[in-house]
């Protein structure tokens, strides 16, 4: 799957959680959870929806690798078959 | 015949809007069935009926007017309900013994939980009138009776409404409750290790959030110190039987709700995770039930997702305690003469000094710590 | 100049001023009724107006209430702005079919095409020993009819100012002038303004009891309020001013404040306007009431001729005071 598609999927799912967020403004290297005010409950739901849409189940131990949008996209790209 | 009245869904609520009936005259209802939808400053709630029976009369139609708490909205003809004590209904020949009370006195008595059987009526022919209720409450409360032409500033903005409601409750708490605070640092290494192992074996959908552990531990600790699972009403401590815990949930864009999770001590961690998940979802989409707003005997507030280490909270009256959970962070830890680094949770207890003292609070935090050292038993 | 200067005058003078102003401002306005021209009006209300405005504008009629009221309806349909004066409400019964079945219904029956911009003025009330057939207070009874407005000015300001507002209303308006108030003295600005005809007026504010009235009874209530204040009872006194439509909001707001209501109405009790007001209070302010709503009305007898009997039949200040005290103190 190409980067643009992954990015779109991420944004769609994040929009469910943070409908007021402006994703144009969001820098690819900023901490997503802080920028969008997403708590652990929201984050878990987000990961579950990524599993639904992209078939990637992210273990807890990898949470610390997923700080920014770039991190997320990179991580998912490697694991999507 | 039982009255279904406009309930109070919070310490500061005086009126609500009846939005919708979920039953019709003639419908059979059980204790706990949702019977109506009521809107308050905090949002739309389903209200459950206490009495089992058949809906006899619907006295108020849905509309946009504010209806005072305590107003009779419908009557339920009680059928044989196993779990409701039958209220004695006067037989037709006893009409002469029926107590006479003026409408405004009746309403004020209901709003202030006055037991009418204790009141002597001084109106003509022994009617209980407004002055009698005011006397029972102790002082004139006429100012609280809503003046039709001087309504409190109404806000149609939901968020502003929630803000107002929180402001009212917090001001009341700050004014009336003498808070005392205790804090303790809890070594979470065993809990987190156990949780990691658990989550590794589970699918993502069954994953447990870390907060579930201290939440369950709080419920169990209340079993050791039940005086903290209580209400302070009219100078008396009223212990709660069920361990229903209010959980602080932030709303997107501002505002905080603290709806209750029921019987937390009896839930397994999986069940607690499911219940918590459901509660957060419904809170953020405005689909809470009335009982969830009023059932909590104590509240837990966790700001662990932000960097806050220690939470000094404000108790929600009529509760007597509030537990604050900070962010679990690595801290230096000294044990048996050796220094190490452990993940530490700073848990605080804010409690009502009228209802208890530091000793009790200390016992509670001790118990909380103890339970979190044995996560497999949670 | 002198527009705001207060002048001493009577209620009767105030009504006349209102008529003069209307006749001057709008040439479509004319006055029609028995003895309004040469005689200057049975109560001297239209004295001098014939000389000032001529016989086309001030028109005497035979004793024929139904005919001249019908003529007024016709003139209104034809684009005029007639003021029909029916000498007293007692005689209006002869024009009841015109009022109820024609004036009140044409807008509806024509599917909204025909308004009837008619004003009917009538003297009303008892207290002058005119006995059974000439002492009626039927203004409350008229409020039963949809399609008309019913007003009762109790003050000089209203006697003067309600007429113009009634004239510019596109639908029939009945103005009831309590006959006992014609000689009442007061002060009014020379060019007093027109007043609203849809709101009640608070004459006194108080927290113990809502006293709701209109017309000549309002003045009895004003006297009673002074006596009650001396006894430590503060009443919230409302002059209804408009009887149909009732300014329900105003008396509900008052009851929300005082939790007790006493209505004083010169009509007979059964099926009276006070019964309507009581019903509305019960329906819409039930949870505010600390005592049943009470009413003081005329005794349910044809009005007696003998002075002391007539006084006993009508609402009086002492009855109002006693009832209010009992309601407040139990």
Q: What does the model show?
A:
The complex is a heterotrimer of chains A (81), B (378) and C (330). Chain A has 4 helices and no strands. Chain A is mainly α. In chain A, helix 1 (3-17) crosses helix 3 (40-54). The longest helix of chain A is centred in the first third of the chain and has 15 residues, at 3-17. The radius of gyration of chain A is 12 Å and the shape is globular. Mean pLDDT of chain B is 83; it is low at 81-87, 89-96 and 140-155. By secondary structure, chain B is α+β, with helices and mostly antiparallel strands. In chain B, strands 9, 12, 15, 17, 18, 19 and 20 form a 7-stranded mixed sheet that branches. Chain B has a 5-stranded mixed sheet with strand order 7-2-4-5-16. Chain B starts with a strand and ends in a 6-residue tail after the last helix. In chain B, helix 1 packs parallel to helix 2 (130-137) and helix 5 (212-224) crosses helix 8. Chain B contains 8 helices and 20 strands. In chain B, strand 4 (34-40) and strand 5 (43-48) form a beta hairpin. Chain C is α/β, with parallel strands linked by helices and 330 residues long. Helices cover 38% and strands 22% of the residues of chain C. Chain C has helices spanning 11-25, 49-53, 65-77, 89-92, 96-103, 106-109, 139-142, 156-168, 215-230, 248-258, 273-285, 307-313, 317-329; strands at 6-10, 29-33, 58-60, 81-88, 119-124, 149-151, 173-178, 185-189, 201-204, 209-213, 235-239, 242-244, 261-268, 294-298. Chain C is globular. Chains in contact: A-B, B-C. Chain A binds chain B through residues 18-20, 33, 37, 39-41, 44, 47-48, 51, 57-61, and chain B through 196, 199-200, 203-205, 207, 209-211, 250, 252-253, 276-277, 280, 304-305.
Q: What distinguishing features does this structure have?
A:
heterotrimer; A: 81 residues; mainly alpha; C: 330 residues; alpha/beta; 7-stranded mixed beta sheet; 5-stranded mixed beta sheet
Describe the sheet with the most strands of chain B: 7 strands, mixed
Indicate the low-confidence ranges of chain B by residue numbers: 81-87, 89-96, 140-155
Number of strands of chain A: 0
Structural class of chain A, please? Answer: mainly alpha
The separation of the N and C termini of chain A measures: 8 Å
Strand portion of chain B: 25-35%
- SSE sequence of chain A, one letter per element: HHHH
Gap from first CA to last CA of chain B? 44 Å
Number of H/I helices of chain B: 8
Number of helices of chain A: 4
The gross shape of chain A turns out to be globular
């Amino acid at each position: 799957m190409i980067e643009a598609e992954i990015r779109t999927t991420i944004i769609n799912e994040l929009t469910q959680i943070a409908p007021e967020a402006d994703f144009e403004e969001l820098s690819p290297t900023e901490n997503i959870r802080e920028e969008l005010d997403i708590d652990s409950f929201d984050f878990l739901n987000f990961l579950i929806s990524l599993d639904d849409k992209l078939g990637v189940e992210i273990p807890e131990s990898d949470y610390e690798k997923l700080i920014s949008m770039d991190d997320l996209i990179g991580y998912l790209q490697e694991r999507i078959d | 015949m039982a009255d279904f009245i406009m309930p109070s869904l919070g310490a500061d609520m005086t009126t609500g809007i009846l939005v919708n009936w979920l039953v019709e005259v003639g419908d059979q209802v059980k204790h706990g069935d949702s019977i109506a939808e009521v809107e308050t400053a905090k949002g739309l709630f389903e209200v459950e009926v206490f009495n089992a029976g058949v809906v006899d009369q619907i006295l108020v139609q849905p509309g946009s007017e504010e209806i005072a708490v305590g107003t009779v909205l419908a009557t339920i003809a009680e059928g044989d309900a196993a779990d409701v004590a039958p209220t004695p209904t006067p037989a037709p020949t006893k009409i002469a013994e029926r107590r006479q009370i003026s409408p405004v006195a009746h309403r004020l008595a209901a709003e202030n939980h006055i037991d009418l059987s204790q009141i002597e009526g001084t109106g003509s022919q022994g009617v209980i009138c407004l002055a009698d209720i005011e006397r029972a409450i102790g002082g004139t409360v006429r100012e609280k009776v809503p003046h039709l032409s001087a309504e409190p500033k109404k806000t149609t903005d939901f968020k502003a409404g929630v803000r107002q409601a929180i402001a009212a409750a917090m001001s009341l708490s700050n004014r009336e409750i003498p808070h005392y605070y205790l804090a303790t640092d809890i070594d979470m290494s065993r809990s987190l290790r156990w949780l990691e192992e658990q989550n590794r074996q589970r699918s993502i959908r069954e994953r447990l959030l870390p907060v579930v552990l201290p939440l369950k531990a709080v419920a169990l600790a209340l079993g050791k110190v039940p005086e903290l699972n209580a209400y302070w009403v009219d100078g008396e401590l009223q212990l709660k039987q069920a361990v229903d815990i209010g959980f602080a949930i932030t709303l997107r864009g501002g505002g905080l709700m603290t709806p209750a999770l029921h019987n937390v001590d009896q839930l397994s961690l999986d069940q607690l995770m499911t219940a918590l998940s459901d509660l957060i979802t419904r809170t953020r989409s405005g689909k809470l039930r009335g009982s969830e707003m009023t059932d909590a005997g104590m509240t837990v507030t966790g700001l662990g997702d932000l960097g806050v280490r220690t939470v000094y909270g404000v108790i929600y009256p009529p509760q007597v305690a509030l537990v604050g959970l900070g962010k679990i962070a690595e801290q230096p830890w000294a044990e048996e003469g050796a220094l190490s680094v452990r993940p530490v949770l700073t848990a605080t207890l804010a409690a009502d000094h009228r209802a208890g003292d530091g000793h009790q609070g200390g016992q509670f935090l001790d118990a909380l710590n103890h339970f979190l050292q044995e996560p497999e038993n949670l | 100049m002198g527009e705001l200067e207060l002048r001493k005058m009577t209620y009767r003078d105030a009504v006349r001023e209102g008529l003069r102003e209307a006749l001057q401002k709008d040439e479509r306005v004319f006055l029609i009724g028995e003895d309004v021209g040469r005689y200057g009006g049975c109560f001297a209300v239209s004295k001098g107006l014939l000389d000032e405005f001529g016989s086309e504008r001030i028109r005497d009629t035979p004793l024929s209430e139904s005919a001249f009221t019908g003529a007024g309806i016709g003139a209104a349909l034809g684009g005029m702005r007639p003021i029909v004066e029916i000498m007293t409400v007692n005689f209006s019964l002869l024009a009841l079919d015109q009022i109820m079945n024609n004036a009140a219904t044409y807008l509806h029956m024509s599917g909204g095409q025909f308004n009837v911009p008619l004003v009917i003025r009538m003297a009303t009330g008892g207290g002058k020993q005119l006995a059974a057939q000439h002492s009626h207070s039927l203004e409350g009874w008229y409020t039963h009819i949809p399609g008309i407005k019913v007003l009762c000015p109790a003050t000089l300001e209203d006697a003067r100012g309600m007429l113009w507002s009634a004239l510019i209303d596109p639908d029939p308006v009945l103005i009831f002038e309590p006959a006992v108030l014609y000689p009442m003295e007061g002060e009014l600005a020379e060019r007093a303004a027109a007043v609203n005809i849809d709101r009640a007026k608070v004459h006194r504010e108080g927290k113990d009891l809502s006293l709701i009235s209109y017309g000549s009874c309002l003045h009895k209530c004003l006297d009673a309020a002074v006596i009650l204040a001396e006894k430590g009872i503060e009443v919230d006194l409302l002059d209804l001013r408009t009887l149909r439509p009732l300014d329900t909001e105003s008396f509900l707001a008052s009851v929300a404040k005082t939790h007790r209501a006493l209505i004083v109405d010169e009509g007979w009790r059964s099926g009276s306007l006070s019964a309507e007001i009581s019903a509305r209070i019960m329906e819409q302010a039930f949870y505010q009431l600390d005592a049943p709503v009470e009413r003081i009305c005329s005794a349910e007898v044809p009005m007696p001729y003998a002075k002391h009997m007539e006084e006993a039949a009508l609402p009086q200040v002492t009855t109002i005071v006693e009832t209010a005290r009992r309601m407040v103190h139990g």
